[in-house]
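Quick one: Metallophosphoesterase from Kribbella sandramycini, structure tokens please.
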Amino acid sequence: MSLVRPAGTALALGALLAGAALSPASADPGLAGDGVVASRQDSPVAPGVTYTSFERLDPRGWLRGDLLSTDLSKRGVTVDYVNTGKVSGGTPLSQQLARKGAIAGVNGDFFDINDTTAPLGVGIEQSGRLINAPAAGHNDTAVIGKDGLGRIAQLFLQGTAIDDDAVKLALTNLNSPSVDAGGIGLYTPEWGDVARGRTVDGVQAVREVVLRGGVVVSSAAAPGTTALAANEQALIGRDAGAAALEAFELGDKVDVEYGVRPDASAVAVGISGNVPLAKDGQVPADVPDADLAPRTAIGFDAAGKRMILLTVDGRATGSRGLSLKEMGQLMIGLGADDALNLDGGGSSTMLARTPGKAAPQVVNATSDGGERVIPNGLGLLPVKGSGKLKGYRIEALGTAAATPDADLSRSSRVLTGLSRVLTASGHDETYAPASGTPYWFAGGAVRVDQRGVVTGRRAGDVVVTAARGAASGRFPMTVLGAPVRLAPSTRQVSLADSAAKGFFAIDGYDADGFGTWVEPRDVKLAYDPALVKVVAKGNGFEVNALSDEAVSAVVTATVGSLSTQLSVTSGLASTVVDELDDVTKWAANAVPAGAATASRSAAEGHDGGQAIALDYSLTGSTATRAAYLAQTPQQTLPGQPQKLGAWVYGDGKGAWLRANAYAAGGGSAQTLNLAAAVDWVGWKYVEADIPPGLAMPLRFWRIYVVETVPTRQYSGRIVIDDLTLRSAPPVTMAPPAKVIDPMVVTDGSVRGWKFAVMSDAQFTADNPDSDIVQQARRTIREVLAQHPDFLIINGDFVDRAFGPDIALAKRILDEEVAGRLPVHYVPGNHETYGPGDLSEWTKVFGPHTSTFDHKGTRFVLRDSSLGSFRAGSFAQILDLKAQLDDAARTRAIRNVVVLAHHPVNDPSPTQNSQLADRKEATLLVNWLADFHAKTGKGAAYLAAHAGTFAATRTDGVLLPLTGNSGKGPAAAPDEGGFTGWALVGIAPKSDWLQLEFRPHVDSLELKAPTDLRRGEVAAASATVVQDGRRVPVAFPVSADWAGSLQLHVGSASTAPFWAVAAFDPATGKLTALRPGSAELRVTVNGVTKSASVKVGW
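--- reply ---
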């Protein structure tokens, strides 16, 4: 990979983007299926055994899985059945693997989860010893034969008990959790301590015959309560089986024989599952395609020489799980000819060892949040190695405790001038631990000492090597540029009490947006040690409070000349800021007017006092409906609250419950989510997190219910009581430093050819001549005046998408543009509002996605109208990857710009206005960064939706964000909160994309001193006035500063000798140089203002 820098330094793709996305078609079709592989990491476990973790995205969502691929012919491991040593009971899989010294394994059979924990099917230990089995039912079994080959087979218990009178009884169960109806089960000492009576719970006719040394020593109508001794067996019959056992009398000799059929002599290891997922390379027709869940499966290739163990995570935001049919398809894609489903859900567990480690770790994300107690599993037992050092596995010490599947790509980065501490784990030829202190060395981009501390010297690729004799290990690294800013991993660590521990890391970023965590050894912390304790841990710091009282502290982290801050709080005090006992202080209203309705009235509160009821009807329209209970006047909230809550009597109708408050800095109201759905009936306390970073004090506005699904039409009533804040003692922190990205031109004009972008006008046909419609028309006219090659409307041109709204949008474009330039219209979320989809929009504006090339730049327009690309259509994700691959191959394409309405990241503290699928957002940036790094071509993602103008970059990908062109902005005026549009220039240079963020200018003010003395320095500034907002002419506002011949624009140190004064737009400083007069001018979006300055002695 290459980081595109002025110096043109080449850097390795593998080092910079470990686990980067792969091509959907060519990179890994077995894992991809009908989707795309987002990441894949492989690690050897033993000779012939490879562990793989992967993530993929397909039409049904995200999937994360773990794979153990074992070449059985290599004989690097022995496969064995593992359990606790007993059939009943159970322990976590990690303990079962440790019992046999296994280095990897998965959970096994389904089991009696609510009682005995005994497995339902067949269990055969290495060497063919049968431990448990049924004669019928649950007989599908994964088998390793004594020939070392694997297969899926049906195994059945075959057993008899014959007394000396030749009474012969057939056995139906061996150590099973229950005895079959009318059958006889044999229980051996391997059953364990669980009472045998639990195998016949609720059965009336029962008999247990206990054998000691093959002789009947007891016969009773109920099973015994003590565990069986080493030389004892118990025969338990029920119904007809109980009657048959009466033939065995005290003192009788009974010969018990049992095994499995068929081919018992050929079986070395066996474990049962419940559904064959693949047979002869096909998924059986009766395998269901429903019930997404975590899964575990085992399979073998057609030759039986390769064993595939697979777990997939489920019931989680980041992994949906699979249906049984999908699991079969995936197993076949991975090479299985035959496959069997093992126990899934919370039982799904996989462990694997990494090279140089003694014990395996859990590598999947168990849906129970930890290991479940299970009865058995399959383990991989290592062949004993020589113990002699053959190689090293190198990793960053700070993330060495991470699980083997963790994304450690950032750990292989180091910023210039900072360090990364590495550690090397020695291993022998079997990847088992082996001792030996290595010698460290590396290329010239870094310096490495003999403790494994790597220090970045200059940007570039480097391989760090640890070696001792012939043994060595290599660790590819990427040296980033020098850090230009810092950020904590969280702005606020909130602790419940002094016993709780929190964590934060400090991240550093270079000028191209490449980042990584900073080693704790490079960070200096300043805080009050009487309030909190902070210690280095892993790749960051662990923190806890030192008092049981409420605590607030500021931690300042410094790296070189850079610093950043975060707060630590412990214990939150509750304050009721409004008891809602005065209905006159609240007003009810609803939108859309004439459809939804709302009214408020007094009601009984949760504690018997008074509260306020909100009666609502979210009917009459398929557009988004909402009913509001607003405070009048709005209340300024005290302190620095972290949570806002209220008691709510729910009606169970499922409305989304939210609240609005204004931050002190201005902009639109911030949205706080109290409950995703009012799905309860009765009183319940609900609470929203108030994101750190909002300017305090907040001003509370309203609580409301909202419904976005067109087909959900209903009325209801909720009651609200005791609006409550939870707060820690206030702290004072410096605001994060504003990131000023040079892609935004703050003085001058963009270079190269130009196109324009506008977004978020948000008008409706209810008033075709509204102020917002006029703003939209004004924006188009301003665009046309700059003669761009084309205009892109990046979503939310309309506020609602019924037929008349879309017709008005078409009319405005026809009247204003009139064919004078091409217009490309990207749909936003409001292009679905009303119908609930893009049906009305596509009737007029055509396909929801498109791609076109223009003067060497490829434009890929995507649909995020439903909050994510996948919701818009999975086909557009596959097409995006195909377009990037084609652009990489096509020499005529120099850059790629992807446009969609929703941004990767919303810069506001609430982060409500961004791609809803955060993994999809990461995938998008990774794909673009991968494209940029491999080709050196430019990559950008241009979005809107957040109501602010902003510009950042991540891993070399430009991420500009356009604000509103009609509707009022969301952010404060000095943080990009203004209305306007963007003029984008593209030129064949390293800074290939530039933007002018052009605000609407109702009036322009220029403030500058009229008289200065030579050598005097004063401030000069400009302000745009629009719709009551006062917008400073500073980043991200674009302007063109100029002046008379006697005024130099730039640093005073570069002024020519004749200049009377110099103005530096970067600092806002006006410097008087020599006596005379000069004129300072500023132009913003075509409006110019000037001021005269006179310099005297």
